[in-house]
């Protein structure tokens, strides 16, 4: 009797294991591209937005990283050249550094001899242009972070409309397989839109934070340069 119960429990465990293995095999067969195709045509703009977001993030990340590189000896060398009235050497040093800070200081050096308010205004104008260059593409990335989820929700609504339309045509012969297409589209587009939107949102904030760091360095260097111009008047 004990042996019979043991054999029955063993058979049940084996059946359960086989069912789990079959379910796992079926889950593996659910490939990524199958899900994408189930989303319908709305997946095309979502996919394009993801490419745009990745491109903007990578391109801006390295551009901002290059702009943030400032030689610690740069401002010291500028000070030495200005104190010794070597303005041409200071301008050449600025032109050899391809950074926003160097271009701002170059504009300031070229205005030496004019009223300090004019020098400060010229530096600020260049700084505003450099900040605009650094922020290029960020509004588009922000639009992607908000637009991708909206497209996903649009696909959800379209999928549910398709599902209810199929139900109305089927009448009393409603089948689960008949509704699967619309439900697939509704779920897949929502997930895809949210994934693209969330990644774009974090990417946007990362870039904004890095731009703010560069702006802080630009302002600190400008203040130091203007203090340098005030020194002879003391």
UniProtKB/TrEMBL annotation:
Annotated transmembrane regions: 39-58, 141-163, 183-208
GO annotation terms (biological process): protein import
Compartment(s): Cell membrane; Membrane
Predominant location: membrane
Limits of the MotA/TolQ/ExbB proton channel domain: 98-219
Superkingdom assignment: Bacteria
Entry membrane topology: Multi-pass membrane protein
Keywords of the record: Cell membrane, Membrane, Protein transport, Transmembrane, Transmembrane helix, Transport
GO cellular component: plasma membrane
Protein transport listed as a keyword: yes
Protein name according to UniProt: Biopolymer transporter ExbB
UniProt source species: Prolixibacter bellariivorans
């Amino acid at each position: 009797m004990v042996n019979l119960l043991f054999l029955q429990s063993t058979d049940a465990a084996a059946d359960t294991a086989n069912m789990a293995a079959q379910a796992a095999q079926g889950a593996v067969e659910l490939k990524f591209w199958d899900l994408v195709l189930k989303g319908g045509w709305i997946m095309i703009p979502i996919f394009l937005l993801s490419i745009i977001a990745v491109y903007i993030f990578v391109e801006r990340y390295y551009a901002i990283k290059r702009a943030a590189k400032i030689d610690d000896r740069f401002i010291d060398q500028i000070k030495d050249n200005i104190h010794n009235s070597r303005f041409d050497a200071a301008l050449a040093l600025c032109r050899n550094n391809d950074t926003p800070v160097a271009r701002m200081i170059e504009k300031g050096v070229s205005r030496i001899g004019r009223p300090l308010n004019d020098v400060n205004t010229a530096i600020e104008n260049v700084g505003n242009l450099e900040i605009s260059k650094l922020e290029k593409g960020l509004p588009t990335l922000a639009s992607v972070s908000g637009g991708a989820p909206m497209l996903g929700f649009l696909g959800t609504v379209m999928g549910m409309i398709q599902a209810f339309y199929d139900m109305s045509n089927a009448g009393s012969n409603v089948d689960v397989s008949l509704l699967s297409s619309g439900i697939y589209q509704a779920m897949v587009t929502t997930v895809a839109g949210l994934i693209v939107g969330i990644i774009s949102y974090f990417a946007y904030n990362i870039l904004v934070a890095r731009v703010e760091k560069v702006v802080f360095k630009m302002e600190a260097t400008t203040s130091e340069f203007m203090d340098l111009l005030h020194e002879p008047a003391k």
